Amino acid sequence: MNREYAKMCVGHGWHGLVDELFDLAEKENFQVTQVKEKYGSLRIYADFLNEEQDKILSDLERRSFTMCEGCGVPAKAKTVGSWINVLCDSCRSINNAL
């Protein structure tokens, strides 16, 4: 998986986290295999991680759970029907209008 494809798999608000992920992968020499949104947070799958790298990726995932996927501002997870997502009020109202 490459950086640009990973960015297409999540909202614009999480693109900075994806950049951090791929910068780290290049520096630390590990392979990102999948990036997606699941249960309201960023999910990262990678091969050839050591324990410290795994902790850093877990931190990226944790940070996404308090960051609007649409625009990146602080936000809280909300369950709507069976979907959990993290959107600020502005992005939530835009998504509900679609």
Q: Can you walk through the features of this model?
A:
- The chain is an alpha+beta fold.
- It has one domain.
- It has helices at 3-8, 15-28, 51-64, 89-97, and strands at 31-38, 41-47, 77-80, 83-86.
- A two-stranded antiparallel sheet has the order 1-2. The chain has a two-stranded antiparallel ribbon with strand order 3-4.
- α2 (15-28) packs antiparallel against α3.
- The longest helix has 14 residues, at 15-28.
- It is elongated, with a radius of gyration of 14 Å.
- The termini are far apart.
Q: Uncertain runs with pLDDT below 50, 5 residues or more?
A: none
- Measured as a percent range, the helix fraction is 40-55%
Strand order of the largest sheet: 1-2
Query: Can you write the helix and strand succession as a string?
Result: HHEEHEEH
Tally of distinct domains: 1
Features of this protein?
alpha+beta; 98 residues; two-stranded antiparallel ribbon; two-stranded antiparallel sheet; 4 strands; 23% strand; single chain
Task: Compose a concise summary of this entry.
The protein has helices spanning 3-8, 15-28, 51-64, 89-97, and strands at residues 31-38, 41-47, 77-80, 83-86.
Task: Give the topology.
Elements: H1 3-8, H2 15-28, E1 31-38, E2 41-47, H3 51-64, E3 77-80, E4 83-86, H4 89-97
Antiparallel strand pairs: 1-2, 3-4
